[in-house]
Amino acid sequence: MQNYYQFMIPRLNGDEIKGNFSRYRSLVRKGIAGFIIFGGELETVRNFVGKLQEEAELPLIISSDLERGLGQQLKGGTLFPPAMALGAAYKKGARGERREAMLRLIQQSFRAVAEEAKYAGINTIFAPVLDINTNPKNPIIAARAFGEDPATVSLLGIEMIKTLQRNGIAACAKHFPGHGDTSVDSHIKLPVLQQDMKRLRRYELKPFAEAIAARVRMIMLGHLSVPALDASGTPVSFSKKAVQFLREEMGYDGLLITDALNMGGIGNFSEEEASVRALAAGVDILLHPSDADKAAAYLEKMNAWSDPVRLLKFRKRLRPLPGGDKPHFESHAALSQQLTDDALTASGRISLRGAPLLVILNEDEGDRGRAFGQIMKKHFPDMRVFALGPRVREQGIRKQEAESMIVAIFSETKAWKGGAGSWLFNNISSLKNQADLFISFGSPYLLDGIGKTPCLYAYWDSEQPQKAIAGLITGTYRR
Fold this sequence. Notes:
Layout: E1 8-9, E2 11-13, H1 21-30, E3 34-38, H2 42-55, E4 61-64, H3 83-92, H4 97-120, E5 124-125, H5 150-166, E6 170-176, H6 197-202, H7 205-213, E7 218-221, H8 240-249, E8 255-258, H9 271-281, E9 286-287, H10 292-301, H11 309-316, H12 329-343, E10 345-347, E11 357-362, H13 370-379, E12 385-388, E13 405-410, H14 422-431, E14 437-440, E15 455-457, H15 463-474
């Protein structure tokens, strides 16, 4: 009888790892393949991950979504700019030496991500994103992708794979066969990728073909219906035809993992049904089942079968314990700031008069934009600030005769959100005839269609890009 726990990677909440340690340890003793980490404090997670590894017969797959570095999940880690910012920084460089210098900086950031992950005890990173931004209305990829063309995505994606794996971290290319040209968030429901095979080969599949050539150790199958691969509409994540295409036509012999099974993208299937189908299709790992015990019981009931040889071979090669010297977090933070600065992109000529009126459109929870407003206030003490959100409305915003108007947009691309909402677009539309400058602290596509108004693109909304943009506007921008 098979041990079905060996095919699963459930969620581990880092903030609860100490209090729930006995629960996670019990899963290890049952033979779980590993965990995907969300949140927590670096040293605490490092300590308890080490204890879990000591309980395991084989090295556990300790994984996490670190597309932007360890700071994306763990307090104490460094947060780097998103993939689109790195792509923008690279493409802004002139040809030749400057572009090569920028590529070296990007490689350094990937190496820093690997060093910090290794120190934390994370041995598998679910990155790079190899999706291509061919649909500006995509609600879930956007700034997570390196660019809008196969060449840029392939170049930087392969650099990330090689750098991570050269430094002892297994990379995972996602989301096969490509989530870029969709308009639906697969966390919510199943997107359909309608391209024919000719188009897939020309765009979506190119970065994955290069990743396979670079010997990427893992590929994540997207919750995507792709009729060109499987006319039945079965999600790629548990489609036998899609797996056969990857194995036989694309020649991939590494590990295959589903996207998270708690996502709406599995369509009308239950998590347990999707698990059975995934193993039957030849997928190696089931990611993020909501209840590992329930999934294991169902797999046993259905007498599911999968060959664990490839998975066991993968685990034997993993780093079993947290390791390496303590990373140089200060130098990593400086590198992140430099890449943030280099990524800033402007369209149009920026011309502001006097103390500007600042309108902050914050679609998400929290006090986003606070750092930006505070820095701007230091330089313009008389500046008026309106901070608006879906629950905080201000009627009748009008700039005075001596003022310029800056509109700063905070709208994060994140799971389950379903993209930017009508509130944001309605406010952008109502302000576009008054604004002298728009700033997107997120997806640049939010500002499509505003006409000739100058724009600044920062690609993300942490304190680093807020400081950089404020410095650019006030003339205090320094390296």
